[in-house]
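RECORD TYPE: inverse folding
INPUT: structure tokens
STRUCTURE:
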């Protein structure tokens, strides 16, 4: 099995804001409980905004998504690992706002690295992975990390490069590297190497397309926003604000 590895440090020019059009995935790959059509219905500005920044020694990734007539806002803080070979999670906040701006859900993880849970260093919130995996070497080698859903649900996921591909969004062509992410089924059922290879084509996958040039920003995402069972969406680069 592939050994999980830390995300590498970001490129020097990673700071900035990227905006995406967000809409429901046309054909579901997972048997989702939540319907993206309902969750995104009523949004008069279906634009997600991803903000990359530095705050002292922290690498900060802010995620802002429309939800019906409200917003979902998340902030991930990462720091260099103690041995300096990559990044580890430091803290996370998540808030859901209704139409009036009232906070209706508020989740805080102030010390992600607290030792009482024994989390592997290569553990990251699953919702942040599409915006962080571009920092991985996109060299064709299969890698893996641990996807954190909550403190009682962590899954190992594999990350593989499918190849180079040109995609068109809004009449603009983008040279990209297509990447897939999928769960390790052996987390739930011991299957062995041979059976794992046989079932791999049937495992639902997350699909991401990254710009070929640094900082290799996400150009397109297709899959659940979160673990299987989360609403399935598409994110595409947008020029709208």
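DESIGNED SEQUENCE:
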């Amino acid at each position: 099995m592939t050994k999980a590895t830390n995300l590498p440090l970001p490129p020097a020019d990673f700071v900035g804001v990227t905006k995406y059009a967000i809409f429901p995935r046309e054909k579901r790959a997972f048997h989702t409980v939540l319907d993206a059509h309902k969750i995104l219905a009523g949004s008069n500005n279906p634009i997600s905004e991803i903000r990359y920044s530095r705050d002292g020694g922290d690498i900060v990734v802010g995620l802002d998504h429309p939800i019906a007539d409200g917003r979902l806002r998340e902030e991930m803080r990462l720091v260099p690992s103690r041995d300096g070979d990559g990044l580890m999670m430091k803290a996370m906040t998540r808030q859901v706002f209704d139409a009036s701006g009232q906070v209706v859900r508020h989740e805080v993880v102030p010390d992600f690295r607290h030792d009482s849970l024994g989390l592997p260093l290569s553990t990251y919130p699953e919702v942040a992975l599409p915006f962080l995996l571009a920092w991985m070497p996109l060299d064709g080698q299969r890698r893996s990390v641990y996807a954190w859903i909550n403190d009682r649900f962590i899954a190992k996921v594999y990350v593989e490069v499918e190849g180079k591909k040109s995609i068109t969004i809004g009449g603009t062509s983008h040279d990209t590297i297509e990447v897939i992410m999928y769960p390790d089924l052996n987390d739930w059922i011991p299957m062995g190497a041979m059976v794992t290879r046989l079932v791999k084509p049937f495992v639902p996958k997350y699909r991401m397309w990254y710009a070929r040039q640094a900082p290799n920003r996400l150009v397109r995402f297709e899959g659940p926003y979160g673990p299987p069972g989360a609403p399935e969406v598409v994110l595409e680069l947008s020029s709208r604000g």
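NOTES: The mean pLDDT is 87.
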